[in-house]
Write a structure and sequence with these properties.
This protein has helices spanning 6-11, 126-133, 153-156, 159-164, 184-201, 217-220, 232-249, 278-290, and strands at 23-27, 33-37, 40-43, 120-124, 142-144, 169-173, 206-210, 252-254. By secondary structure, the chain is an alpha/beta fold. A five-stranded parallel beta sheet has the order 5-4-6-7-8, sandwiched between helices. A three-stranded antiparallel beta sheet has the order 1-2-3, with no helix packed on it.
Length: 295
């Protein structure tokens, strides 16, 4: 089916085609189930079907409850949590007059040491959960739930627990679960609320908004949203909305999307067309984070 037009995106209208009773519709080689329902598609990470509310072509007021899922499969044994080492990085310093350009993505800097991850907290969905699943970040610094969208963050993330690790840097990624069927206006509003709560609880922390990754060409070529179709054009437009929000809220925008896509604008490597591969996390994702830091 065709992507939403620009008027629909600005108003937060959502897709309403191919509406059917919610049930498990398909299962791909990665054992990820997709749900058809009155509000489109939801990744369920292989769990039973959920009830989906009726959604008309108006801004979404209530979002779908996520399935309870486990962290992504690890390569070998899960890394044990250790006491954070002393961080000794020297990244880019914004101008002393606070003239940093928040309306542009964080520029590249000299690569920081790997122990930078121990100074951070990471909040988000399965993309973020993989930071501990693939041992990029200490387990106690990852606050994520597979299948979660921005409207459910307070159901699964304790903001006091985030503050308890005294993060110098907080990274947030939300959008893959919802970009094709939720109201963008609603998502951005809830994103702003989360940012402001984190600022209140962590006044000295730097907050980074991560752009959501692209999908593969196979995922773009699926028949419709209910069967798993996602469009990189919509993902790009949504990421631009995040950049605008970051500029207004004076937080940093880290364009991870640009580091994990090929010349055609599609995700480089994935087992299901949506989630980044272990190799991408070990190389492109890790490298991007460590070379795009603001101090």
């Amino acid at each position: 089916m065709a992507a939403q037009n620009s008027d629909e995106k600005k108003s937060g209208a959502v897709h309403n085609e191919n509406r059917v009773s919610a049930e498990i519709q398909t299962q791909d080689s990665s054992n990820v189930f997709y749900l058809k329902g009155n509000n489109g598609l939801m990744l369920s990470d292989g769990l039973p079907a959920v009830t989906v509310p009726v959604i008309e072509t108006t801004p979404v007021k209530t979002e779908t409850q996520p399935p309870m899922t486990e962290p992504p499969a690890t390569q070998g044994t899960q890394a044990q949590t250790a006491s954070p080492p002393q961080v000794t990085t020297q990244p880019v310093q914004p101008p002393a007059d606070s003239g940093y350009d928040f309306n542009s993505p964080v520029p590249e800097c000299e690569r920081a040491n790997d122990d930078y991850f121990a100074s951070c907290a990471f909040i988000g969905d399965s993309h973020i959960n993989a930071f501990k699943g693939y041992s990029l970040a200490p387990e106690d610094r990852v606050f994520a739930k597979n299948g979660m969208n921005i409207s459910q963050v307070y159901d699964y993330v304790d903001l006091d627990a985030v503050s308890s690790v005294s993060p110098s840097n907080i990274y947030i990624m939300f959008g893959t679960n919802g970009v094709m069927w939720m109201s963008w206006d609603s998502m951005i509003t809830q994103y702003r609320e989360l940012i402001n709560k984190l600022k209140e609880k962590n006044p000295n922390a730097k907050i980074y908004i991560l752009s959501i990754p692209p999908v593969t060409a196979d995922r773009e070529n699926m028949a419709d949203i209910a069967s798993g179709k996602m469009l990189n054009s919509d993902i790009n437009d949504y990421n631009n909305r995040l950049l605008g929000m970051a500029g207004e809220e004076k937080v940093y925008f880290a364009d991870l999307n640009s580091a994990v896509k090929n010349d055609q604008g599609c995700l480089i490597s994935s087992s299901d067309g949506v989630h980044m591969s272990a190799d991408l996390y070990s190389n492109q994702v890790k490298t991007y984070i460590l070379t795009h830091i603001v101090k």
